[in-house]
Design a protein that fits this description.
Layout lengths: L6 E3 H8 L3 H10 L5 E2 L6 E4 H16 L3 H8 L1
Antiparallel strand pairs: 1-3, 2-3
Helix pairs in contact: 1-2
């Protein structure tokens, strides 16, 4: 049985990662983000632990670059 308190829905997951809900759906469909379904209403669900892991990976990849490299990439 799923512990639903450790899952969030599309809109919340998108806000957490700073992307649109449609991006979350696309990433789920592509297998880039593990996606689960609510057993009653079939809504897409995402594990908080999975999303936190993705955030840590993003932080690592960003921290590899120097401050000037990060700034030049934004422009």
């Amino acid at each position: 049985m799923l512990e639903l308190d450790s899952f969030i829905r599309v809109k919340q997951a998108a806000a957490m990662l700073g992307v649109s809900p449609n991006t979350m759906r696309a990433w789920g469909a592509d297998g880039k983000v593990p996606e689960y379904r609510h057993p009653v209403n079939n809504y897409r669900l995402y594990k908080l632990a999975d999303l936190k892991k993705i955030l840590r990976q993003l932080e690592k990849s960003v921290s590899r670059f120097s401050k000037s490299e990060r700034q030049s990439r934004v422009r």
